[in-house]
Design goal:
This protein is mostly helical and about 140 residues long. It has a two-stranded antiparallel sheet. The longest helix has about 70 residues. About 5% of the residues are buried.
C-alpha cells in the first residue's frame, strides 16, 4: 500500500475515533438529562399523591363532622373531636411535605435563555442553543 493511502486511512481512523468520542459524550449528556427528567417526574407524581391523600383527609374530616352533628357518631369509637384533630394534624403534615416538594420541583424546573429564549436545564451554565452565559 502506498504512503498516500496509509495517510488517508490513518486520517479516516482518527476522524472516526473523534466522531465516536463525540457520540459517547452526547449519549452521556442525554443519559444525564433523562435522569434529571425522571427525578422531576417522580417528584411531581409524589406531589400529586400527597395532594390526593390530603383531599381524602379533608373528606374524612367532613364525614366525621357531619356524623358528629347529626348525632350518628358510632358508639364505642374514638371521639369525633379526637378523630377530627388527628386528621387536621395529618393534613398539616401533608401540607408541609407538599410545600417542601413543591419548592424542590420549582427549583429544579427548566429556565430559559435571556438571549434567545431557548429552554435550558437548571444546571446549565451556558445556553445550549446560542452559548450565552446563564445567571446562577
Amino acid at each position: 500500500m502506498d504512503s498516500g493511502m496509509k495517510r488517508f486511512l490513518n486520517e479516516m481512523a482518527d476522524r472516526a475515533a473523534a466522531v465516536a468520542e463525540g457520540a459517547k459524550d452526547a449519549a452521556s449528556a442525554a443519559g444525564k438529562v433523562v435522569g434529571e427528567k425522571k427525578e422531576e417526574a417522580t417528584a411531581r407524581l409524589e406531589l400529586m399523591r400527597l395532594r390526593s391523600e390530603r383531599e381524602s383527609a379533608f373528606s374524612e374530616i367532613g364525614r366525621a363532622f357531619y356524623l358528629m352533628n347529626a348525632g350518628r357518631w358510632p358508639a364505642g369509637a374514638e371521639s369525633a373531636d379526637h378523630r377530627i384533630e388527628s386528621l387536621l394534624g395529618r393534613v398539616s403534615e401533608l401540607e408541609m411535605k407538599m410545600a417542601e416538594l413543591a419548592a424542590k420541583v420549582a427549583k429544579d424546573a427548566a429556565r430559559s435563555c435571556p438571549s434567545c429564549g431557548a429552554v435550558c436545564r437548571p444546571k446549565d451554565r451556558f445556553c445550549p442553543s446560542c452559548g450565552c452565559k446563564l445567571e446562577d
